[in-house]
Amino acid sequence: MRSTTLDEGHAPPTGGRTTPSGGRTTVLEGRTKKFGEAATRRVVSAPTGALYEARRKIQPQAVRGRFRTAKWIVLAVTLAIYYLVPFLRWDRGPGAPSQAVLIDLDRGRLYFFFIELWPQEVTYVMGLLILAALTLFLMNAVAGRMWCGYLCPQTVWTDLFLAVERLVEGDRRERLKLDAAPWSIEKVALRTMKHAIWLLIAWWTGGAWVLYFADAPTLVHQLATFQAPPTAVFAILTLTATTYGLAGHMREQVCTYMCPWPRIQGSLTDEHSLNILYRVDRGEPRASVKTSQALRAAGQPAGDCVDCFACVTACPAGIDIRDGLQMACIQCGLCADACDTVMQKLGRPTGLIAYDTEANCRRRAEGKPPVFKILRPRTIVYGLLVAGIGGFMLTTLATRSFTGVNVLHDRNPLFVTLSDGGIRNGYTVRLINKRPFERELGLVVEGLPGARAEIVGAPEGHLAVPADATREVRVLVFAPPGTAGSVPLTFRLADPVSGETASVQDHFKAP
Question: Which NCBIfam families does UniProt cross-reference here (predicted)?
Fold first, then answer.
């Protein structure tokens, strides 16, 4: 049998079976060493009969390498953006909020530096969501679960919480010893310090999220003086609890059971997608260092994998990458860093675990050179969709009008017949000024010959609309006698200074 070395904190290899009575069964993993070495056997008892695997705490080993360095850089950049962006200022003029990124629920505005979106422009938000989904599809088709391994908030905050845990309690071996040790003053002190720091990070995480919905310096002052609105405090406490629970305790369980992406991403990849893979053609058959040296000396095949389980102990999900692609694997690359470290110590080439494709695994088994196909129909379609939707959104955003008009026809009555036989219709017209200053706008009604429009309170047709606001006016349209049926009307709003116009169509109702 293949050798298996297990530490606490990791589940035994599969292979046991459930008895019909639902009792306990054993998993036997042994190693038969050749050339006179003694056989080693481990017997692990595992409860069976349960529908789901029991929760097991995973204590990953700290590693160093290019993937770990990339994750640290991404963590620092993303957390800096998340925590600091609410404090960036942007001058929008008098009376306008000066926070660079702000979701103003009271005024119904979304501010992003020089961009201001109104509720009527929610299509831009929908477009961003579609663009984000397509970008995620493209990333997955090119390099697997890159989002999950580096950019996902669950991954980023879990890495941060693990870093705190290592700083307070030590690396994997120290944490395993602390878990197994009886409760003492030192253990209580370490655990208290760790959870206190976790709660502090979780509190500031929830607080930073709320700062995107209110003026950041003002809300921070209110929180410090215990004068913050109850809704803000409730939101912060809720996000504190979720961050503390998900990043501190549930960790990989969120990725495996709560997140739907692992179940979706399989349909978005193909045999040419890059993934963190164990190169079986090079690693097998596995053997210890001494055994592999003896096998090679005897002219027998021996792989580079020495069965050290460094890849397993480094995995934050506690899986064995050598078993192939798995739903719990987030493709973070830490197993590759751990394996490269071992290979360097043994003087063997690195890359036993690395980004590779399933197609190349088969090609190497057939003695063919590897081929990487980044550009293929799947990635081209995703790329064109991302570029097309992104370009369309940028174009419409750059050319959008800052003037708007909405019209609502009176429902009861639809029309009024006057004493001279003429017909009158009433309309409620809302004028929209998206500029940061007050403007004088002119309103005219077109499309009905012989008709005249009267704006209640502004007979000259020029209306002052406040900065970044709307104004509602009452418009009466009079048609000459003999008008019948439904006649289309056009309400046209114009800015005589900038030349901007906006129009909307409605109908004039008559008997």
Answer: ccoG_rdxA_fixG (TIGR02745)
Give every CB contact of residue 65 below 8 A, 6+ residues apart in sequence: 333, 334, 336, 337, 338, 340, 341
- DSSP structural state of residue 112: E
Q: How far is CA 10 from CA 24, 55, 113, 405, in A?
A: 19, 11, 48, 64
Local structure of 134: helix, strand or coil:
helix
Residue 91 structure tokens: 């001058």
Helix (H) or strand (E) holding 31: strand 24-31
The CA angle 144-145-149, to the nearest 5 degrees, is: 135
- Please check whether residue 162 is in contact with residue 345, taking contact to mean a CB–CB distance below 8 angstroms: no
The CA-to-CA distance between both ends of the chain, in Å, stands at 93
In angstroms, the CA 28 to CA 15 distance is 8
Amino acid at residue number 404:
G
**At which residue do the structure tokens 């200074």 appear?**
497
How confident is the prediction along the chain (511 residues), in pLDDT tens digits per residue? Answer: 343 334 444 444 433 333 333 333 333 333 333 323 333 333 334 444 556 666 678 999 999 999 999 999 999 999 999 999 999 999 988 878 999 999 998 888 999 999 999 888 889 999 999 999 999 999 999 998 899 999 999 999 999 999 999 999 999 999 999 999 999 999 999 999 999 999 999 999 999 999 999 999 999 999 999 999 999 999 999 999 999 999 999 999 999 889 988 888 878 888 899 999 999 988 889 988 888 888 888 888 888 999 999 999 999 999 999 998 888 899 999 999 999 999 999 999 999 999 999 999 888 888 888 889 999 999 999 999 999 999 999 999 988 889 999 999 999 889 999 988 899 999 999 999 998 888 999 999 998 888 888 898 776 667 899 988 999 999 999 999 888 888 999 999 999 888 889 999 999 999 8
CA distance 509 to 497: 34
Q: Judge if the upstream peptide bond of residue 301 is cis by omega within 30 degrees of 0.
A: no
Query: For 125-132, which contacts have Cβ atoms below 8 Å and span 24 or more sequence positions?
Result: 127/389, 127/392, 127/393, 128/393, 130/389, 131/386, 131/389, 131/390, 131/393
Q: Is the peptide bond before 413 cis (omega within 30 degrees of 0)?
A: yes
Grouping H, G, I as helix, E, B as strand and the rest as coil, residue 41 is: strand
> The tokens of 494 are what?
């114009």
SS3 177: helix
For the chain, domains (ranges, CATH) are: 1-56 (no CATH), 66-266 (no CATH), 269-377 (no CATH), 403-509 (2.60.40.10)
Q: Which of these, 460, 412, 403, 405, lies nearest to 437 by C-alpha position?
A: 403
What stretches of 241-376 adopt beta strand conformation (E)? 275-278, 353-356
